[in-house]
Structure formats: structure tokens, C-alpha cells
Amino acid sequence: MNQALQYLEDKIARRDVLVGIVGLGYVGLPLSLTFLRKGIRVLGFDLDEGKIKKLRAGESYIKHIEPSELAGHLASGLFAATTDFVELARPDAILICVPTPLTQNREPDLRYVAATAEAIAKTLRPGQLVVLESTTYPGTTDEVMLPILETSGLKAGRDFALAYSPEREDPGNPKFATAEIPKVVGGINESCSRLAAGLYLLALREVVPVSSTRAAEMSKLLENIFRSVNIAMVNELKMLCHRMGIDIWEVIRASSTKPFGFMPFYPGPGLGGHCIPIDPFYLTSKAREYDFPTKFIELAGEVNTQMPYYVIQRVMEALNRQRKSLNGATILLLGMAYKKDVDDPRESPSFKLMEILQEKGATVLYNDPHIPVLPKTRRYAFRMESTPLTAETLARMDCVLLATNHSAYDYEFILRHALLIVDTRNAFAGLDDTEGKVFPA
Questions:
Q1: How far, in Å, CA of 17 to CA of 423, rounded?
Q2: How many structural domains does the chain have?
Q3: Are 240 and 302 within one domain?
Q4: Which of 97, 241, 275, 399 is catalytic?
Q5: Is residue 220 part of a domain?
Q6: Containing domain of residue 17, as a range?
Q7: pLDDT tens for residues 11-36?
Q8: Beta bridge partners of 45
Q9: pLDDT tens for residues 217-246?
Q10: Does 275 participate in catalysis according to the annotation?
């Protein structure tokens, strides 16, 4: 370790560091607060001028982050935010939390990672630590990030430190704050790992060091592929159980009583969020370089991708029982967020459901208490506002399709006033459905 990195290690030990966080979304902003709560200074970077203006005004654009806390950190001088990437020369450590989406062909799209690395390289100075947090395939840090950063003329591991530490955010989950979730860290060498681990220990309870950036990158993929595969399995079993006349939710409850060797997963209308629908394809793409077909992962992806089509088929069956056609029907879609009680619509299967319903001739409205206006997404640009969930609205719908089971929904009220309900989340189970309005999907 040269003198510049030794100086950085000393600064970390003294808790006298400025942390730069690139990307102030659902990962970067909570991470910023985690450091700020421990008295560590943070300089946030984002290209979205709207976000920066809100942050500078002490306003929050993420539901579970309180504006008052942001305002307090701004007033104390601990926090600042900017769109000027020339300022990247200032932080002692730069943590990268930018999107890693897929292309239309389901190939890794690393343009945001590469662009961030190029911006950092322009101002990179000896003694800085750079950590990639964005989920990606094994090899991204040393194959993509490292060469770009070294165009600065500095040598990774000697002049500046480079590491990978996957984000583990679970938006809307009050049980696991960022500071309480163990942080996996892997550097390009031992000194880089030590510096990154020391930095995170300033704000997080536990760090889990691994031998390399590639091991850290793979650990994140394993976590999400584990979930993707098991969700696919239970989704497939749900379809089989419907055909066999068995209640899959009852089966899951029964199996969950086993105190060992079983972990419950729950079916739904498809996968959503920024991780599980995307991350497995990062590994399948990389695996092809090694002539290794990841059949199991790809099969799980196929099952989960087909779930919205299955749900629409169930909607058609439900309408048929009412002697109605999907073509010309008016459908109210409940829940556009990708999961319960969050305001995050990224990769939500509800968008696919809306698209298929419209293609089949239905008029589609939506309600989501957390998403008053549908944002433009990577694939969709629906210009719609949330429809008020009134008795009159429910009564004039041919079908109410529950996609996301928000706690804010009054399910007894919905059941009382709706004519027909297709339930993908088992939210109406246990209610008195004497008229047979609820159709499971």
C-alpha cells in the first residue's frame, strides 16, 4: 500500500472521510442516510436535476425516507448533492449505485457503469477508494471498471483502491435497515478489501469479506437467482394446483409448519423490482463466454415471464363465467408497484398485465395509493393517473384484477362493491364471499 492509500486508511480510522455516492435512487439515497446517521459526510451525485433540486430543498422522492431527516443533514452541513461530476475529485471514497438494466435482447446493459467509471477517471486522484455496488456479472469490476479507471494514469491497487460490494436493499421492509444488513465486500487485492471493509464499518454493523471482486459479484447473483428459481417453482405449482382443484396457499401454509428444510415462497402475477427479473440474465450472459448453458436459471426465467399471460387467461375465464368477453370489458388493475406497500414500479408485472389487457381490447384503469401517476419506464409509457377507489368505480367495473396487495386496500370494501375480482395474491382469502365474486389466479 502506497503513501496515498495509507493516508486514506488513517482517515477512515479517524472517521474523517467524505463519501461520494453516485446514483441517488432506491439504493444510493438510503445508503447515504446510513453514513449520515453515523456522522459521516456525504456528497451525492445524480444526473437527474429534479432529484437534486428536491434534495437540496430537503424534500424526499422516496416514500419511506422522511424529508425532515434530509433537511436536518443538509442544515448540519453533513450532506450535499450535485449534478456536477467534476466534484468527484473531492470524496475520499466513491460508491457507485447506478442502474444495471437489460437490453431488449436480455443482455447486460453496462452503459451507466461505464459512463460513471469514465467520469471518475477524469478526476481520479491518488488515495481514493472506488466501490461498485450495482448488481452485475462476475468480472465487471476488473474487466470493465478497472481498465477505464486506469486511463487516468493511476494504477488500481497501488494508487487508488477498487472493490465491489453488492447492495442488499429491500425497499419497504421495516425489519432490515441498511445498517443492519451484513455487507459483502471484495477488493481487487487484500489492501483494497481492507480499505472498503473499513469504510463500510463506519456505518454498518457487519462486513463479510470475500476473496475477490468476482466472488462478491457472484454472491449477489446467487441470492437473487435463489429467489427467482423458487418463485418460478411455486408459480408453476400454482398453475398445476388450479388445474387439479387444490388451493396452493393452503399447501404452502401446511408445508411451512415443517421446522427444517423448507422455506416458503409465494406465487404472484410475475416478477418485479430492480433485481430478481434482471439479475439472473447477467449470469446467463456471462456463462456463455465459458460455453456453459445455465438451463435451470433460464427455465425459471421462462416460467416467471409467462405468469402475466396466465393471469390474463384466468381473467378471461372469470369473465366467461359472467357471460362476458375480455374484448370490450372495463378492468380495474389494483397495484402498479412491484411489491406490497412500496412506491417503486420498476419492472412491475402490472405494466405487462395492462399491456396485454389493452391488446385484447379491454379498457384498463388502475389504482395504486403509492403511485398517483404512472411514470415512464424502460419499456412502457402509459399516460395514466390513479383512479379513486370508490364504491361507484368498483360497481361499474366488469372485473377488478388485484396485482399488488397493498395494506392500504380495504378488501372487505372492495369485495362488497365489486362485481368480479381476480385475486393473484390470495388477499381475499377468509372473507365472506357468499356471492362467489372472487376468482383466484
A1: 51
A2: 2
A3: yes
A4: 275
A5: no
A6: 3-211
A7: 999 999 999 999 999 999 999 999 99
A8: 22, 82
A9: 999 999 999 999 999 999 999 999 999 999
A10: yes
